[in-house]
Amino acid sequence: MILLSPARRLLAAAAFALCLAPLAHAQAPAADWPQHPVTFIMTFPAGSGVDVVARTLQEPLGRVLGQPVVVDYKVGAAGNVASEYVSRAKPDGYTLVFGTAATHGSNAALYKKLSFDVEADFVPVTPILDVSNVLTINPDVMDVKTLKEFVDLVRANPGKYNYASTGNGTGTHMAFAELNARLGLNMVHVPYKGGPEAMQAILKGETCCIMNQVQTVLTQYKAGKVRLLGVTTARRVAAVQEVPTIGESGIPGTQGFDSSTWFALFAPKGTDAAVVAKLNAAVRQVLQMPDVRNKLESAGNTIRLETPEQFRATVRANRLKWAEVVKAANITIE
Questions:
Q1: Helices (H), ranges, 244-287
Q2: What CA–CA distance (Å, rounded) separates 216 from 22?
């Protein structure tokens, strides 16, 4: 038996503690998370549809987590600025990107020089909801009442009409691109910095139309300032039940049209699976609160509840679908 002096015993104990430190650090996030505010890195501007949903979740999610939720804007390049920022963030569960089917789907096909991989560099945490876009027109620019009248007018005037979007590669851009590709429409795309700017362009008559989110156009629609011709989902949307789906139009090429999008949370790769599970459970709890659910659904959204594993499969299927659309529409963004 070897006896150590008091000094050597202290050194041995310190060395043993240092050996255990990495293990303790690795286990701590799951056991103690969260210990300080959680930040949503916002992909699109204040007032956009994504921002409205994030703000709806912000306070109740903070209550469930026991820590404040902060919204920080890193806007630009159709969400790529925010995505790149989070891809390089510390994977501790405190920095999340508020992504969409565009930022973590179609952008992978649109942008050839991304500095991150939309799948490999992120951990899908949870979807939040599915969002329907709706073909919205300024009736003073286009005096049409149905999708068929819209299509006939555009076909009779190739290249005359400009359509707005909330930015190159966004869901609003891709929905219109898919429609144009399916129907062979010749329209000019005019991208704006976000939803508020795009809607102002429609109201001013700078552009004729947009495939914008239902929740973003409801106020102007109810005020009679815009007309809605068709929702992009496979089924009608409760908030605007009177508006048919694009697929209902009967126009050849529109059968099965479904160009909805989703909003979701992603963490940097390497984030502890237990932390991801806690986040997923917390968001699911918030989404099932009656006041939160009612607010989101009354705006034309559909709550989506999936485990991280289920959502990973959703992200993969979404990326492959939009890759086909981008190829068919021959769209590339440098």
A1: 273-287
A2: 48
**Residue 177 in contact with residue 259, Cβ under 8 Å?**
no
Give the Cβ contact number of residue 111 at 10 Å: 18
State the CB neighbour count (10 A cutoff) for residue 234.
Answer: 15
Dist. CA 309–CA 273, nearest whole Å: 11
Q: Give strand ranges (E) for 193-310.
A: 209-213, 227-231, 261-268, 301-303
46-75 burial: b if 16+ Cβ within 10 Å, else e: eebbbbbbbebbbebbbebbebebeeeebb
Q: Which of 323, 166, 151 is nearest to 249 (CA)?
A: 151
| DSSP β-bridge partners for residue 333 | 111
| Sole residue written with tokens 């699976």 | 273
Q: Place 124 in a pLDDT band, splitting at 50, 70 and 90.
A: very high
- Tokens 């916002």 appear where? 42
DSSP code for 271? -
Does residue 26 surpass a pLDDT of 50?
no
The Cα 316–Cα 117 span in angstroms is: 12
Burial class of residue 98, CB neighbours in 10 A (0-12, 13-18, 19+): buried
Helix (H) or strand (E) holding 129: strand 122-131
Pairs from 47-52 (Cβ < 8 Å, separation ≥ 24): 47/194, 47/195, 47/196, 48/166, 48/194, 48/195, 48/196, 48/216, 49/131, 49/195, 49/212, 49/213, 49/215, 49/216, 49/263, 50/98, 50/100, 50/263, 52/215, 52/216, 52/299
Report the 10 Å Cβ neighbour count for 191.
Answer: 18
259-302 pLDDT, tens digit per residue, is: 888 999 999 999 999 999 999 999 999 999 999 999 999 888 88
